[in-house]
């Protein structure tokens, strides 16, 4: 058993602690009852003789009897512990607890040892408490011993493990504790032994530094407390019943009074009171020993457990717990920094406010923490915000006076939230607040119509919608109210009555704005009923409708058709001249069930609707209204329905009239010798708008409008005085003509000559748009540009996809002049400063809304052009002028430009890299033209170019193998550009563009190590010995770029050719043997590319390859090595055998690079050729690195000879280790005299098919450092509580009231 002294320390509190908590709990004991119980809990328990006790831990059998349900079994079967039984979950919890109680009655120490080990094993501890430990060790000593045996390697324990088994285990664990207390509530829990032992163990474990112990014991203690609360509640009920029986018996007359019954009732009440006092002492011990410390634990899950359970206590046993002493813990924890804990607080309060009786007792708490609850409606965790709104809804139901108007308004605006659960909760709050209260004067009102109750509620909805000043979000308001107020929103009869009927005497009529809002709400409600999904931005994924929902949808659609087929013509007639109302009303027919027109004999109402649509298009020239009319005709003229003929006749008559009118007006408008007046221009424009709007949804090919409209556009180009709106709509209408003609040709329903006609019309129209693109009117230029981008994309090579090869004659690719015009438009109209926006906004006011609209328009223009780049319609290098704006306009167009770079890289990596370096070169040339030839690298312009290069470098990602060729080509173009122009100051000065190498160095980190050497070799072609010796500031770009190529960068730890790491190839002594799993390196991509520039260096067979150190073994190399400065050192077979960080400066790599035999044009004579010209014998060529080293490091060379022996010993030791770590099947590393360097840049004459051809990569095991075993720690880090890490500053040091 756990020693009595330990129990004493666990349950005896100091006087300060008692005085501190006396005001925080209802369990005060002025009569000394706590002292009695505490004394009993601290007293030593009687022990049996050692011979009477079972030995060992949890796996044993009670003498003379076995367990059922697979717990302790006989007949030689394996014994199972309580933990294993509960974990399996195959046995009923009731039977498991009954078995344990039976064992406890036979030997309570053995049974308690079972229970103790149950809690230990539930924590994930592999150890077990033995009988010897149970008898002789203190509680703290047992916990310390279990802590030492705790296996923390994984960090997981049953309560945190994933999987259905462990989720079920948590439920079984909690059920076991609840059933155990329930089954023991009449006798065993009062024996002052079992509960004292369990509470003492859980209290000690909850204070452990091990998270698993603390988490498991806290959950067990809280569930134990909840079970005790249920026992206390039952005792309280029994006490009340006994007291009533006692009072009833005592109030009887003396002749009928039973004194013996009075004595029994009195004795029973006394026993119940004693049991109640003991239960309260147990709860007090758990609350003060566990809850008070763990509700502020550093682990959020533990804090959440405490808050969840205290909410249960207050709800179950409100008489004892529903007071400010316990509510303050919930109020304080609402400021917790973890959303999980805040959510438990709100959920706990919801359980209390759900009951009106309990809610009335929370007045003081609500007044103190109401502001915090209101602020939680804007919680960053959506779940917390949703539950906070629901909590405020419950508060509103309990009392209307608690929440002020300001509090309610903070919830009202959430109905427009993009997060649907928040919006729906706010809609429920709004509905409860505004629509749920009915006065006595509202009783007896009609159910439908203008004078009905819903009429007033609909008006209230309209008023709220207008006051919110978010008129364009009507669909969001309807969606928020749909779940709680769908019956109100579906009362379309009342809405129609409010719009059509005259107001009654004394009734205030709706204003024009209110009628407009009501029409919008009515349309949104119709859409919600027919589509059954939230508006754009709120959809939570595609949801399949249930059978009931589908039936409701069909019924609503039928009702809408029957109602609005009659009412819509009347509404259109009343509001015919109102643009906003008509636009919304004309959208209603697309939700009709058109069969009802026939089945319901509503043809006359269809004719009325068609007449009203004709009236609307005749009176309006607004494009939105005209498009609504066109869309309505398109929906009604469905060939599947019997009303098609009727609608088609009306549509044909309308279009005939429009085309005839347009042709007549056009002839008058284009008469020679007369200037058109404004009236004629207006008539042509209005008719052209209507034709264009109808052509968008209807095929008008039979009217042959192309000739007349093309004539109009051509006249506008010749005269130059055509109104811009006429030109814009003419371009748009011609665009529709081309597209409808293409659709007809694609379907195969056209005659043979149609394709030729379409090709001619399309090319002529593109030329016309190009001519307008070069005009002066910005609006016309934007329209021409947009149409050109669409047509070029449609008639590109993509048109032949999906088996449409017959359309190949229609393919149209822009010529160079058109590409230049498109690019110039983008540069002039898109990449402009914010102050210059008036050039493209057509005189709009300079306010925030107009700026946003103008930015949106420019983004669309840029996106249209970038699509031409990504689909290979225009040359990729034209994107250089777009890419160079990446940094300057990052906030406006950064996402578009970045996505374009990503798409172009997927198409052609090398061409994309050439485009990127071209954009940098363009910016560099612009800087030279502005600042002059003397480049100051500290200027903002140069720093901006370098920062842009850094951003470009980041876009290549981390896989250097995939981008190998592209990065190499980028360096090649950059080097050529840097040395392209000679210095204007003379031969001794650096080249004009030499500073560009400083920009190019931003890409050096993306080169593989062997590619750095090859790029360095290419750089030497352009250098002279004088350049190598220069150290002035003007030569710093060359110096820094060379250093970036020569550095053995730590970031390049993996050699693609050797296949092993160059950092840590040696293994520690504790390294595990190699396993079968080996690290595989990606194969290099093929070096062949579409451009001939991709292979641009000739690797000659007799080229001088890099030499690391001189050795006699070099004599056996198949290639003769030459080095003027040979440093004698041991022979190294590979660079991977030596750590770059450990190499001495004199051992660092200097090589004799391969040089071309021919002289590059317009370049200084290279260093090697200058040295070879005076000598005609075969002297080893000295490269500039070797010569500089020879002149400046004579002393270092002498020291290198002296340290040869030391290096040899280090090398031998290193090689010994490497032989254990590296296994090369072919012995490649053992035979090579030099690192194998395969140039990624090769000459076109000696082109290789595969850059890695003949390279058989091997793999090696890379051992990570062995992680420190947590068992070796001398002690665990204490888990101290830091209030600032859990709660906000606002709640710290703040009293409850």
Structure overview:
With 1297 residues, this protein is mostly helical. Helix 23 packs across helix 25 and helix 31 runs antiparallel to helix 32 (678-697). The radius of gyration is 44 Å and the shape is flat.
If you average the pLDDT, what whole number results?
Answer: 76
Q: Main sheet, how many strands, which sense, barrel?
A: none
The low-confidence parts are 1-78, 839-845, 1049-1192, 1217-1287, 1289-1297
Helicity level: 55-70%
Distance between the termini: 45 Å
* Secondary structure tally, helices: 53
Name the shape in a single word: flat
Radius of gyration: 44 Å
Strand content: under 5%
Helix vs. strand class: mainly alpha
Number of DSSP strands?
0
Features:
flat, 57% helix, 1297 residues, mainly alpha, 0% strand, disordered C terminus
In short:
This protein is an all-alpha fold and 1297 residues long.
Topology:
Blueprint: H1 4-11, H2 15-21, H3 33-42, H4 82-88, H5 93-106, H6 108-122, H7 131-136, H8 139-148, H9 164-184, H10 194-206, H11 211-250, H12 259-294, H13 300-316, H14 318-321, H15 324-333, H16 339-353, H17 356-359, H18 363-375, H19 382-398, H20 405-412, H21 420-435, H22 453-467, H23 474-489, H24 492-500, H25 512-531, H26 547-574, H27 579-585, H28 595-599, H29 603-619, H30 623-636, H31 644-669, H32 678-697, H33 706-719, H34 724-746, H35 752-773, H36 778-794, H37 816-829, H38 848-870, H39 880-883, H40 890-907, H41 909-931, H42 940-954, H43 964-978, H44 996-1000, H45 1009-1020, H46 1025-1029, H47 1036-1046, H48 1167-1172, H49 1184-1192, H50 1194-1202, H51 1204-1221, H52 1228-1231, H53 1283-1286
Helix pairs in contact: 1-10, 5-6, 5-9, 6-10, 9-11, 10-11, 10-12, 11-12, 11-13, 13-15, 13-16, 16-19, 19-21, 21-23, 22-23, 22-25, 23-25, 24-26, 25-26, 25-27, 26-29, 27-30, 29-30, 30-32, 31-32, 32-34, 33-34, 33-35, 34-35, 34-36, 35-36, 36-38, 37-38, 38-40, 40-41, 41-42, 41-43, 43-45, 45-47
